[in-house]
Structure formats: C-alpha cells, structure tokens
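Table 4 source record.
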Amino acid sequence: MALIRLDVVGSGPREIPISYVLNGGYAGRDTAQVQHHVDELAELGVPAPTTIPTLYPLSATQATQAGSTQVQHGRTSGEAEWALIVGDGPDDLLVTAACDHTDRDLEVHSVAWSKQAGPDILGDVAWRLSDVEDALDGFSLRAWVTHDGAETLIQDGSPSQLLPPRYWADRLDEAGLLRPGTVVMSGTIPMVPGVDQFADGWRVELADGEGNVSRVAYEVEMLPAAWE
C-alpha cells in the first residue's frame, strides 16, 4: 500500500495510505471537444470508449510521489491532471496536482492497460476541497517537458476544462467507492501542438494564484533492452 505525504494548505503535513486508484478519461466539460479527441485517437488506432467519461481502476501501487519512473521504450508520456484524494471519509476530500504517465504504444491495444503500465505521480501540496471548491476553476494547471536539459511548456490550462471533483465524488458515492484512501485522477487537458511529449522528464503545477502551488516533477529513465 502506497503512503503519500501532503502539505495541506491551512492545516499542515499529513500522511494518507492509498487503497484504490481510478483514472478518469475523456473527462472534458466540452463534450464536442471530447468527441473530437475520441475521433482523433481513433484515427491513431486507439479504441474508442464505450462510455464518456470513462473511469479505469488501477492497482493502488500505481500511486506514488517518486522523482523518477522507469520505462521500457521511448513512447511513454505524462498528462497534467489534478487528483481527488479521499482522506478519512467522504467529507474529507483533498485536491492535489498529478501526472498520469501512460504507455502510448500500449494505448492502441487498451487504454486501461496503458494506464496500468505507468505510475500516477501525486503532488506535494493539497487543498481541502471544501475550502476551494468554488475557486478551483480559477486555478492554473500547467506542465513542462524536459529534453536534453531544456524545459518546454506542453500543457497550459485550468481545472475549468475538466469535470469538477464533485462530479467524481458523487459518482463514487453512488457506486459505494467513496472510501478512505481512494484516488481519482481527473483526466487531462490538451497538449500544445508540436511539442514532443516523449521526454526525459515531466513537471506539473497546480496553482491557486495566492502563492500556493502543488508540484509534481520526475525523470524518465529508459530500461535496458531485454536479453532475449
């Protein structure tokens, strides 16, 4: 079971053992844009979901705050997201930055498999949802990639582009899954066209505009080739 450590704005350090991880997908608020994205991915061979939005259950071991991840080939990449974390119960909900590292080659066979093949890396700072729910749309959500030591902005948006945390909390509650230690990843925002996502490192920031920033930063290490 993963144990994550968060500095909660207004209340200080906290540790939460993670029991369940679920990854949201195709979770934009603009349904026409979501359908356009589905169509684009279908042209690349990625299977279309049967429902929109989607939710992919992952092993709890996928949640981490590690500063690096090891991959088997050069076609994996992150996604800037926020994560909803259930603390002690359904009234104890936290929001933090997150990055969903995904195997893009595996994605054409199964999106669920591609999510399971990489970690969900969580931020260092969190907010109580009850404190920021009305303000969250005004937060910024940004990501940068690193190539040969140079950093480039690859995602630049806000949570207003995605379904809100309350949407997922309500859906989990209806399904009996709003349990302590549950993490729900939000899905992601569009990438800047022309920026190479297959990078040496990723950095994500979720910021409230008042000086509080939740950060994810990690390096991507290629594993040696298999001895076959």
